[in-house]
């Protein structure tokens, strides 16, 4: 078990030594451990059926140590949502701005990265799609903004393909983008690492499926 006062003293000692990077790393690792553990418990039992004591017991930490990092279970849920959608929005924005790539190449990268992101963060993604009703209004507004940002850049990639003459001129970029996002998102329900196809193969199948209807 952790001693909260000893932990705070350790942090102060690190600060005095000027080793800020070590302090940040240590705190980030603890926060991530709490988030990952919470996401797995929320996925398995449901958010409303998990108590903070369940989280701390699963990790092996005191309740006081938990409250040193989080105010509440609600804050954990909000951070799970914010981290996932912010990371996704950052990724699609980065893909869109990669120079010297055609829209077709960006779309390939986008679909495969989206699928891998869901595979690599399965518990977080499951919580993301199942526990929306437990978010505060403020958190929902932020999530909606990030969702809109993600959609905006997928639309931009499709529009780039039309402008480049690669994609059909009569496509509806928003409808196509929503279809791509929905298709990729749904793999959280059925993809298994020991299944018939690897995540790379699933991404390639999705990419070929989408481009078969887009390419001229």
TrEMBL record:
KW Magnesium (keyword) present: no
Highest taxon in the source lineage: Bacteria
Gene3D superfamilies: Homeodomain-like, Tetracycline Repressor, domain 2
Domain HTH tetR-type: 28-88
Residue ranges flagged as DNA-binding region: 51-70
InterPro entries associated with the record: Homeodomain-like_sf (IPR009057), HTH-type_Tx_Regulator (IPR050624), HTH_TetR (IPR001647), KstR2_TetR_C (IPR041490), Tet_transcr_reg_TetR-rel_C_sf (IPR036271)
Family matches, as Pfam families: TetR_C_24, TetR_N
Listed GO MF terms: DNA binding
Keywords tagged on the record: DNA-binding
Protein's UniProt name: TetR/AcrR family transcriptional regulator
Species in which this protein is naturally found: Paenibacillus xerothermodurans
